[in-house]
Amino acid sequence: MNTALPDGWTIERVRLASGDDEAELLAPDRHVTVTWYGRSAPEVLHPDVILSFTGICLAHAAGEWFMGELQPDGSLVCWSSYGTDLAEAIRGL
Q1: E-strand spans in the chain?
Q2: Helix or strand or coil: residue 38?
Q3: pLDDT for 49-77, tens place per residue?
Q4: What is the distance between the alpha carbons of residues 87 and 93, in angstroms, rounded to a whole number?
């Protein structure tokens, strides 16, 4: 599954950068939304990568990394974009 990560990244590198030995890749075929401040309806995202860090996740969609939280039904609700750089997004955890 490491092939889905950006060039130069492996799940081991993600774990090292985040300090989370349990970080893992999740299947991206789940319902993912982002709720923008001031908008009444969430926007549906179509991620190609989802990284899980003990319930908090980063989802890569439309060239950006979105941070969110897994829901009991397996869906992912994001609250913001953390930019285009995975290292910077991980620092935002």
Answers
A1: 24-26, 32-34, 43-45, 49-53, 56-61, 64-70, 76-81
A2: coil
A3: 999 998 799 999 999 999 999 999 999 99
A4: 10
**Tokens 């908008």 -> residue:** 39
Token reading at 62: 């439309």
pLDDT band at 47 (very low <50, low <70, confident <90, very high): very high
Give the DSSP letter of residue 51.
E
Structure pTM? Answer: 0.92
- The two tokens of residue 9 are 């990244």
User: Which of 31, 33, 34, 35 shows the shortest CA–CA distance to 75?
Assistant: 31
The structural domains of the chain, with segments of one domain joined by +, span 2-91
**Whole-angstrom Cα distance, residue 36 to residue 65?**
14
